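hey so u asked for the seq, here:
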Amino acid sequence: MIQFSACVGRTRPAATFAMAARARALRAAGHDVISLSIGEPDLPTPPHVVDAAHRAALGGQTRYPPIAGTDALRCAAARKFERDQGLPATPADVLVTNGGKQAIFDAVMSVIDPGDEVLIPAPCWAGYIQVVEFAGGIPVFIDCPAEAGFRVDAATLAAAIGPRTKLLVLNYPNNPSGAIADAAMLIGIADVLRRHPHVLTISDDIYEHLIFEGAYLTLAAAAPDLAGRVLTMSGVSKSYAMTGWRLGFCTGPRDWLAAMTLVQGTATAGVSTISQAAAVAALDGPQDLLEERRTIYRRRRDLVLGALAGAPGLTCSRPEGAFYAFPSITSLLGCRTPSGRILGNDEDVANALLDEALVATVPGSAFAMPGHIRLSTAASDALLEEACERILRFCITTCNH
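ran it, structure tokens below
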């Protein structure tokens, strides 16, 4: 028998992909499943981006790339950080990664030793937990309930910091809640971090262009004096519908970027040159499509909120960004579904919705906040309407069963 490493033993599969796999299996068996489990835009990659990739391939841009990224993309990303996020950057301040997830992986692996603590506001994307545990770090969750707008409270953050705390992970707009960072929250966080100079921060801003109410704010711009301890990451996956191109980028302290480049060189080396050429076209091309797509996602959010407003057992906060709904399902717990199963937790609810209503969602426990489910609103209006109708019928029959 193969003896696998401790890091493999600490690694758990993501619940989002597990639910998506179950949905695919049911669909393959002939069931009419609607999957709202994966956070992936259903809109196409912009044509001019695809054209740029084609031209790059035909033009011979098919060789090994620099580990940190091509000059063209690092320049485009630097311009983008200043234009969209208010962060002064040069090409030397940018690292290009294989998707946003590798930026998180590189950052965590470059600073976390076994036993180090990483503060993660919950609810949170499951990928943070996976990477921290893979590195041997200890995730420490900061509870950010719906009553607080799913935002970090400065006093709670301060109380969570200890001698082993090495890193804080922020993600706004937030997956799964859709909360955005407001000025009061970032000012409070900055005040706490100034008292703890040993704590670094990753700001995952991958949903920065998907804000429906309020304004985009990020920590390094709100508190420039902390920029030497903050890594800000983004990418083209969500905003430009380029998930399969696997292209992320980040900016931050150059010594941190250098360490991350070493990690990346060891793991994967550079990013596909074709994807990098496509990303240049996305970042330097027409930006009006971002507003057009934000309008689509806002409409879909409102559609889902309106359709689920009358669902007994569900309480849904209003997402301010991203493309998710994260309703509480605690009022469904203890109820019996039409098939006779008793709902004991959020996993039961998500599994019952898939098995009995043929709608795939993800339990909130996967995001370190039990008692909720997450559903993606990045689907067509017709699919969302049908999915919400199925969820509504499920809730009515379950509550009345």
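The mean pLDDT is 96. The CA atoms of residues 76 and 280 lie 6 Å apart.
lmk if thats what u needed
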